[in-house]
Design goal:
This protein is of the alpha+beta class. The chain has two domains: 8-127, Up-down Bundle (Butyryl-CoA Dehydrogenase, subunit A, domain 3), CATH 1.20.140.20; 138-314, 2-Layer Sandwich (Heat Shock Protein 90). 50% of the residues lie in helices and 13% in strands. It contains ten helices and seven strands. The protein has helices spanning 8-31, 40-57, 64-77, 81-94, 100-127, 143-162, 182-203, 206-209, 257-265, 282-292; strands at residues 138-141, 168-172, 178-180, 214-220, 224-231, 296-302, 306-314. The strands form two sheets. It has a five-stranded mixed beta sheet with strand order 2-4-5-7-6, with helices on one face. It has a two-stranded antiparallel sheet with strand order 1-3. Helix 4 runs antiparallel to helix 5 (100-127) and helix 6 packs parallel to helix 7. The longest helix has 28 residues, at 100-127. It is globular, with a radius of gyration of 20 Å. It is found in: Mitochondrion matrix. It catalyses: L-seryl-[pyruvate dehydrogenase E1 alpha subunit] + ATP = O-phospho-L-seryl-[pyruvate dehydrogenase E1 alpha subunit] + ADP + H(+). Belongs to the PDK/BCKDK protein kinase family.
């Protein structure tokens, strides 16, 4: 209902009340962890949200221009939030201040809540941008087009790091345009394709890569859009498949972390080329994005052969929002 709202004044009044509440819940979630003050990234997170809360509370309801510029400023200032929260929780885990399940629970709760505030903020900025889109949702999102662009970007990245990239074959089974947040679909597709391209490239030499394409099928019925990504990259050991959904799990070397952390939260990364892997958030965060909009992401492995990722997306636009959570007892 909120994303269908095109009355800027009504949406502004809602956000002036709702965003500080959500940020306060995020702070409560952070402060519910013992020893959080001992870790610099956690202190930065608290400072950013406290400042955002204070700045928004100072804006009169009738000052539309001040609200818009402040919201833009807060989004820019918080653009590296993912890097801070992931590094902060990993530092706490390394110092034995958090257990593995606590890290994953906290990041799931924190980052899912952050998706909601990001969508709401982006919706207001979209409908008040002169000559811009009228919603953060593309009413006729073309998943095939998104897949092709994500494949192009992921292949370019793969060639940069490995000198080659296997081809990506895209099969379009019928017309499946549907209302969706294209930015999120692009992120999910890029992460899944990047993983598949890396797996194939690391398994075969340059000549053999061309013989093992990554295959993508896009199809759907009246209620669901389904995207399957299949590769022959060797798969994942069956006893390790569940680990891919952990924010602590990665098969890549740690040196990729800085670049990938920079590249995710920023809309544009002019500092350099993102890493192929290493930050450990691609799959769990992709699953969060899918779940938030009423879909689901599944991964099946065939050991010593490859993996199949299935993304199911709600085509009806009737998903309910996952509301910000209170800290677990």
């Amino acid at each position: 209902q909120i994303l269908a709202q095109h009355d800027a004044e009504a949406l502004r009044e809602f956000l002036l009340e709702e965003l500080p509440i959500r940020w306060a819940r995020r702070l409560h979630l952070l402060e519910s962890m013992e020893k959080w003050r001992e870790f610099p990234h956690m202190r930065v997170i608290r400072s950013l949200y406290s400042d955002a809360f204070r700045r928004l509370r100072m804006i009169p309801q009738t000052d539309a221009e001040r609200f818009r510029t402040t919201l833009q400023s807060i989004k820019r200032r918080n653009s590296n939030m993912l890097m801070h929260v992931v590094r902060g929780t990993r530092a706490m885990k390394a110092a034995l201040a958090l257990k593995d399940d606590q890290v994953n629970d906290f990041l799931d709760d924190f980052l899912t809540a952050r998706i909601g505030t990001d969508i709401l903020s982006s919706q207001y900025l979209a409908i008040t941008r002169p000559g811009g889109a009228t919603s953060v949702i593309d009413p006729r999102c073309d998943p095939v087009s998104v897949v092709r662009q994500a494949a192009k970007d992921a292949s370019r990245l793969c060639r940069y790091h490995y000198g080659c990239a296997p081809p990506v074959d895209v099969v379009d089974v019928g017309q499946v345009r549907f209302p969706f947040i294209q930015q999120y679909l692009n992120y999910i597709m890029f992460e899944l394709l990047k993983n598949s391209l890396r797996a194939v490239t690391e398994r075969y030499d340059q000549a053999e890569c061309a013989l093992h394409p990554v295959r993508v099928v896009v199809c759907g019925d009246d209620s669901t859009v389904v995207i399957r990504i299949s590769d022959a990259g060797g798969g994942i050991p069956l006893d390790a498949v569940h680990k891919v959904w952990s924010y602590l799990y990665t098969t890549a070397k740690a040196q990729g972390e800085d670049q990938n952390a920079q590249g995710f939260d920023s809309e544009e990364d002019d500092e350099g080329v993102a890493a192929m892997a290493g930050f450990g958030c691609g799959l769990p965060l992709s699953r969060n994005y899918a779940a938030y909009v009423g879909g689901r992401l599944e991964l099946n492995s065939m050991p010593d052969h490859g993996a199949d990722a299935y993304l199911y997306l709600n085509r009806l636009g009737n998903s309910l929002e996952v509301v910000d959570v209170e800290p677990k007892a």
